[in-house]
User: What shape does this take?
Amino acid sequence: MAYKYVRICGNRRQAGVALGKLARPIMSAYLAQSGTWEALRPWRGHAFLDELGQQARAALPAVWEELEGLAEGLRLPLEDVLLWNCRGDLLHSTADGCTSVALRTADGARWIAHNEDGDPYLRGRCHLVDVALDDAPGYLSFYYPGSLPGHTFGANRAGLVQTINNLRTRQRHPGVPRMLLARAVLDCATLDEAVALLRALPHSGGFHHLLGAAGDPRMFSVEVAPGATSVLDTGPRYGHANHMVHAQTAGLAQVITDSSRARQHRIERIVDGWSAGAGSADLLAALHDTEGDLPILRMAADDPDEENTLATAVFEIRDPDVTLRVYDRRNKAEIALDVMSEPE
Assistant: This one.
């Protein structure tokens, strides 16, 4: 199995502690082999990291409490856990990839699907966490060891669905770290609330958020970067890789890797070719496409971005229900979950 499924219940700190305990057995070895961690270490004690922490604590106190719990569960200094969760805000390029697609079908269903691409070391070492919180809807999310959930693929029990693609912006601005902001989106009850949150807070890094929700026919592609937030309706079909493509943000300074460029071109060609009868099988086929030297499904040991596909998620939104199915590289469904049901 590409991940382990775990249920967590409690308040913010308790949830963070539980997440930390899940990651504690492998965290030392994970960081030791990580080029990203090596690149981050010079930022220890830097005033800019302190500023990011202050902004996060002020803007998102509940999420900050989860981060404190995460550090406690990991038995690591809070500063180091904050540093790890600010990697995309401090470094221009990190090993977090991903491709996302959206489809609206004639029967009114909305589909959001996503390849979670990351450090190949994490293959089989991640979790799917099912978190019930005392003061928020609770959520399902793919969980990287030591990183707050939300910056991968997830959905909450209010029916809000979010997938995240890494954007490699070249700007560093004081603001709320992107991974904490992505976690906060999963506390939102509606699409409008999620978009308002993304518009309202200052951003220190860049992410692409693909958003949908039960009870709302819309789906949004949101590109967030320091000083900019662009929100587009996806229309009936949409694909996005790892660089900014909206008219409002495409001209901002960013790193566009060869893989991201190739996957963006390929996913656009695929979704443009879908017929009126396209459905879940087409979404999965798109994300498991292996055409070209730098394909959408990433399995190469010599991937130039040092990333491999760790899991593929397909969200089916049929009011009032949301279903998540997670697949491995062989198109085998490893798990199917009703997002709207509470963990026992």
The chain is about 30% helix and 30% strand. The chain has one domain: 4-338. The longest strand covers residues 308-318. The two ends are 23 Å apart (CA to CA).
